[in-house]
Fold:
Amino acid sequence: MMSTKAFTLVSAVEWELLAGDKERVHIECVECCGKNLYVGTGDCVVYHFLLEERALPTGTATFSATKQLHRHLGFRKPVNELRAASALNRLLVLCDNSITLVNMMSLEPVPSGARIKGAAALALNENPVNGDPFCVEVCIISVKRRTIQLFLVYEDRVQIVREVSTPEQPLAVAVDGHFLCLALTTQYIILNYNTGFSQDLFPYCSEEKRPIVKRIGRQEFLLAGPGGLGMFATVAGISQRAPVHWSENVIGAAICFPYVIALDDEFITVHSMLDQQQKQTLPFKEGHILQDFEGRVIVATSKGVYILVPLPLEKQIQDLLASHRVEEALVLAKGARRNIPKEKFQVMYRRILQQAGFIQFAQLQFLEAKELFRSGQLDVRELISLYPFLLPTSSSFTRSHPPLHEYADLNQLTQGDQEKMAKCKRFLMSYLNEVRSTEVANGYKEDIDTALLKLYAEADHDSLLDLLVTENSCLLTDSAAWLEKHNKYFALGLLYHYNNQDAAAVQLWVNIVNGDIHDSTRSDLYEYVVDFLTYSLDQELVWKYADWVLQKSEEVGVQVFTKRPLDEQQSSFSPDSVITCLKKYPKALVKYLEHLVTDRRLQKEEYHTQLALLYLDEVLRQRSGADSEAAEATEAQLKLRRLLQKSDLYRVHLLIDRSALASEMKMYKNLDHMDQRPFHLKNGKWLERPLKAC
Structure:
């Protein structure tokens, strides 16, 4: 068992204050109502004190009692019980089997002399059914054998309303509404005095131990059960809470939510109603009274009265967190909900969840930490700030005060352990990636995405590129410096592109391809640049790098013109301007003219003529050193033949100027293909001649 300091024990009434000049005073019972404390003694005297409470900086309090007056009731027997009925300004005093009504302030008996006779014990119904605000309902164990009586008590009179028989002699009673919880000679029962229905609870032996029957809330009771158990029971005869384990010799019990407090011959023990664990033990000898009054717990010996002062629940929770007892702290925090105003509780509980999350995080319990951070609506920058240099320099974030944890940074938390540090960084990557698109990120997207980029870059993580090619809020200045530091130049180009700085992006990628800087992220970076320029809307940028891409590869580079969207090819990149650019690049020019003639099917004579001339030049170049009769048709020959067959737009006289034209035409006539059609000259144009004419 790990202890919790839930209460401190402070003195309220010292023996000297009671005894005065008497040699012996024996405290028999106490009652407390607001600031009014009443003490009944063995010599039939009732004392009235005023309690003054003074809060201490530690969260506890001290009490001082001022004696108001005392009065002897005229009997020779002890005062057995005291019960205050503040609505009536009356104190009910049980002495010598008689309940007397006295004024709460003067302690004078009521003038009418009203009293209840034949009472062995009494209990007030704190959940009355009568509905009259000017009376209280009192249940007594009658001196008549096996009888319970119910009374209505007014300012100056009493009225019996019910007498109920019990199967065995009742020894203790508590009442709630129409329900009586009774300790009989051998068992506990619940009895509905309105219907007469009774429900057995469990047995116990009255000869071996004192019964305890205490109402703890609406329709619920606490009982001293067998085997040293504090048992909870509802009016339905069931238990909705697990029992608490206390001493076999318990003589009194009280409730100060969320705690059950038990008294035996030597100790006061404190047990949680939330997890049933014993939380605190206070040495207390010769105690024989333990009662709670509206949340105030009083214990007494025969010579003095003491108050158990609860530490504020928030301080108890903080003490548990400081001891890293997270589960206990959370259980206690949840239980505190009923004692704290809703808005205040929500603020307190969120902070507790956040603190618990950092405790779990420091212990590398990342799943638990993540759930606590989410439930506690943690400002994620609290977590990011543990990692040096991850928050942008422009961030306005300052840590919570008082702090949520005790760590300056990740180095202190991990004590320099690199493996732990790596695990913490992997967790943050995962957590930030999960929350960046949720409400958690509202208002902090720049800080989150910038931190995530830095983590990805440092870890050489594949998700870096995914982050940069999708919607993100990475701050350019911080992110660019970090990417450059870690040689992530391709990623830096993506960052520039996302921030509409395409010129800087392309220049960076060009430098990588040229080998001026090193980044092996993409082995196909040249093709990537070509593709990027192909779909770029920046006309000036495309023209600026056209020569560079063509010099690297004419066949690939020309794609920046051939694969452009058609509307751009018709406007920004007119064929004439492109052809002018490509004159230095014959292979690229052929590809581009093929694109115009074959793909776009432009019916413009000069494109067809220029393409035919380029085909013919290539054919002549290839055949210049070979036997023209024996050489097989090359790709250029096939392309030329196809163009000559299908197009009638080229200028024939320009082709005739090529010295080898005639022999070429002859070659085409001799090809054994069904679709081949030789040509004849008519009116200055070469026309197809029907096959049968050949």
